[in-house]
Each structure stands twice: as structure tokens, then as C-alpha cells.
UniProtKB/TrEMBL annotation:
Catalyzes the reversible conversion of 3-phosphohydroxypyruvate to phosphoserine and of 3-hydroxy-2-oxo-4-phosphonooxybutanoate to phosphohydroxythreonine. It catalyses: O-phospho-L-serine + 2-oxoglutarate = 3-phosphooxypyruvate + L-glutamate; 4-(phosphooxy)-L-threonine + 2-oxoglutarate = (R)-3-hydroxy-2-oxo-4-phosphooxybutanoate + L-glutamate. NCBIfam families: PRK05355.1 (NF003764), serC_1 (TIGR01364). Homodimer. Coiled coil: none annotated. This is Phosphoserine aminotransferase. Binds 1 pyridoxal phosphate per subunit. One of its GO terms (biological process) is L-serine biosynthetic process. One of its GO terms (cellular component) is cytoplasm. InterPro entries: Aminotrans_V_dom, Pser_aminoTfrase, PyrdxlP-dep_Trfase, PyrdxlP-dep_Trfase_major, PyrdxlP-dep_Trfase_small. Keywords: Amino-acid biosynthesis, Aminotransferase, Cytoplasm, Pyridoxal phosphate, Pyridoxine biosynthesis, Serine biosynthesis, Transferase. Pfam families: Aminotran_5 (PF00266). It comes from Chitinophaga silvatica. The lineage of its organism: Bacteria, Pseudomonadati, Bacteroidota, Chitinophagia, Chitinophagales. Pathway: Amino-acid biosynthesis; L-serine biosynthesis; L-serine from 3-phospho-D-glycerate: step 2/3; Cofactor biosynthesis; pyridoxine 5'-phosphate biosynthesis; pyridoxine 5'-phosphate from D-erythrose 4-phosphate: step 3/5.
């Protein structure tokens, strides 16, 4: 292991994925060419794309109505592409505002129809997931952000909804078991739990499409991407390749149930230290804590820089909090080994003893 990498995204990838990808950069499957040097419509690359798409369906156990796409433009592009494809002019989409990423999604949806923000935790600096809300039955869909990367909150269960559910799962995709079939559209930038920056995974129910009357530019119409097997134009080949390798790795680990057990253990270890170490304090309500991004502060903020420097000496990187929430953010995505969290906790204990 090089360092203990707690980056929030792009973030740590499994070593064996990096190793295989580095070989493919020089010679892809004995072709004498780099994966970056072959056409995307060649049989070997088409096989990569197909395997990546079908592994997502398999790992998430998605029903047949779902199609999996790898698109470009990041999760940020989905903020507009979703309402463009699903929200009819003059109709309303419901959103729950749990942080910066949800509010950006809301802003874009307003370009296409009405938005009804049925709950928000903004007033308390997004330190919890709202529990009280009524889902308007006439809304076209309800959008949630399952994990809030900046503030460190996470939906602990899927809200019961009789209208189609849409979710931004960028920072907790494939990290825990969920009934993904309760959703109508799931999207995620792949650069945290799934692969390398450059591709965005969209899993969409075909039955949701073709209902709006507006004209949709070809490249933004999900139906065109589906018809073309996620190869409407040149896809981000290397990002998709790394994603395919990461999905294979996840399957070898035992899939989502197996990785969830490890993720639970990692989060329990870290939060236990945050709760028992007098120097540190968690910033979000306990019941909504994220198992992917743990956010915490020190009661003496002047010590924070010193702690970050101390950690750096211990080869711990990426723990500085987002500029909007301050303090620390320790991201524990799928590829982060349990041992890295042990090292982090040891550093917290040692630093605290030194300061006592
Ligand atoms: N949604 C969430 C929950 C995120 O964490 C991020 C990125 N950190 C985004 C959306 C934006 O993703 P992208 O940079 O891929 O557009």
C-alpha cells in the first residue's frame, strides 16, 4: 500500500485494478496496442462495455426494465438531463434538499418545469436527513441524494414513494444493499466507488422514457444511448475499462453484501473513536451518519492543521473537510482497506494522548 488514501473523489481504487489497467495501457489483451489506441467499436472494447453494463445489472440485481448506460458530463450533467427527459413542461418534480449536490440538481430542474422542494435540512447546515415530508402524488418524480458527500449524511432507507424515485448515488453506489428496483432512475459519477473519473453510470427504466413532448437533442436523449448500447458516440473508453475492472473486483469480493459488511466495520471503528476521543466531535446527527464520508471537527479548531500535518507524516492523506463544512472528512469507499481505518484511529488516539 502506498498511502492511506481517504480522498473524497476521485478516490482510492483497488490495487489490482490499477495493476491490470496499467498493463492494458501498454498492451491490451495481447493486441500489441494500448487500450487507448484501439477503436471503440472493435470487438474487444465492445466486450468491455457490455461486461461493465451487465455487471452493474447483476451486482445491483436490477429488473429487466432497467438499462445501464455510461455517459459523459459527470453527475452534474444528470442534474439537467434527468428533468429534460422526465419532466414535462408545466409539470412538477419533487426534490429533497440534503446538501450542495441536491440544490444544484434543483436549480437545473427549474429550467424544465416546476420544482417542489418538499423538505430541506439547509437551515441546520445539512446536518441531518429530513424525516417529515409529504410526497405530492401529482409530481412526475421524487429526487433524493442518497449520500451527501460534503456533509457526511446518508439516507438509511429508501423513502416509501408511490411516484417514481430518482436518486443521485454518486458517493454510495454499490456500497450497501438496497432495493434498487424501488427506483426508476439511479445515477452516479463513477469516480468514487465504481471506477475512474470520466464516466457517469445511469440506470434507467425504459418505461420512464418517451413521455415528454419537448424536443430533446440526440446526445441528451437516453433512448438514443439505449438503442446504441451506450455507444452513441465515442465513450470514455479508459474510464469504462477501469469501471469494468472495478466491478469485476467487487464481484470477486462477494458483491455488495460482502463489501457492505466491511464498510459497516470500517465506519463503526471510526465513529467509535470520534465518539470516545475528547479531541474530536462528529458534525451530523448520529442516526443519519454516512458510512462513506465521516465528517468531524475539533473543539479547538487551531489544532486542526497540526493534526493534518501529523497524519501526513503517518502517510494518511485526503482527510481535510470540504471548504463548506470545515474540519475533517474521512472517506471510506469500497476500495479502502480496513487497515487504513485502523491506522487513522491509531493516529487520532496517539495525537489525543500527546495533547492531554
Ligand atoms: N453528486 C454527488 C453526491 C457528488 O458527490 C458529486 C461529486 N462529488 C456530484 C454529484 C458531482 O459529480 P460530477 O463531478 O461527476 O459532476
Amino acid at each position: 500500500m502506498k498511502v492511506h488514501n481517504f480522498n473524497a473523489g476521485p478516490s482510492i481504487l483497488p490495487n489490482e485494478v490499477l495493476y491490470k489497467a496499467s498493463k492494458a495501457l501498454i498492451d491490451f489483451e495481447g493486441s500489441g496496442m494500448s487500450i487507448l489506441e484501439i477503436g471503440h467499436r472493435t470487438a474487444p472494447f465492445m466486450a468491455v462495455m457490455e461486461e461493465a453494463r451487465s455487471l452493474v445489472k447483476e451486482l445491483m440485481q436490477l429488473e429487466d426494465d432497467f438499462e445501464v448506460l455510461f455517459l459523459q458530463g459527470g453527475a452534474t450533467m444528470q442534474f439537467m438531463q434527468i428533468p429534460m427527459n422526465l419532466l414535462e413542461n408545466g409539470e412538477t418534480a419533487a426534490y429533497i434538499d440534503t446538501g450542495v449536490w441536491s440544490s444544484k440538481a434543483i436549480k437545473e430542474a427549474k429550467l424544465f418545469g416546476y420544482t417542489d422542494v418538499i423538505a430541506s435540512s439547509k437551515e441546520s447546515n445539512y446536518n441531518h436527513i429530513p424525516k417529515q415530508f409529504t410526497i405530492p402524488q401529482q409530481a412526475s418524480y421524487l429526487h433524493i441524494t442518497t449520500n451527501n458527500t460534503i456533509y457526511g449524511t446518508q439516507w438509511q432507507s429508501t423513502p416509501e414513494s408511490s411516484i417514481p424515485l430518482v436518486a443521485d448515488m454518486s458517493s454510495d453506489i454499490l456500497s450497501r444493499s438496497m432495493d434498487f428496483n424501488k427506483y426508476s432512475l439511479i445515477y452516479a459519477g463513477v469516480q468514487k466507488n465504481m471506477g475512474a473519473a470520466g464516466a457517469t453510470m445511469v440506470a434507467v427504466r425504459k418505461s420512464m422514457l418517451g413521455k415528454v413532448t419537448r424536443k430533446i437533442p440526440s446526445i441528451l436523449d437516453y433512448r438514443n444511448h439505449i438503442e446504441n448500447g451506450s455507444m452513441l458516440n465515442t465513450p470514455p473508453v479508459f474510464a469504462v475499462y477501469i469501471t469494468m475492472l472495478t466491478l469485476r473486483w467487487l464481484k470477486e469480493q462477494g458483491g455488495i453484501p460482502a463489501i457492505e459488511k466491511i464498510n459497516d466495520k470500517k465506519a463503526a471503528l471510526l465513529y467509535d473513536e470520534i465518539d470516545h476521543n475528547p479531541l474530536f466531535r462528529g458534525t451530523v446527527v448520529k442516526e443519519d451518519r454516512s458510512k462513506m464520508n465521516a465528517c468531524f471537527i475539533m473543539d479547538k479548531p487551531e489544532m486542526e492543521e497540526e493534526f493534518i500535518k501529523f497524519c501526513k507524516k503517518e502517510d494518511i492523506v485526503g482527510i481535510k473537510g470540504h471548504r463548506l463544512s470545515g474540519g475533517f472528512r474521512v472517506s471510506m469507499y469500497n476500495a479502502l482497506p480496513y487497515e487504513s481505518v485502523e491506522v487513522m484511529v491509531e493516529a487520532m488516539k496517539y495525537f489525543s494522548l500527546k495533547k492531554a
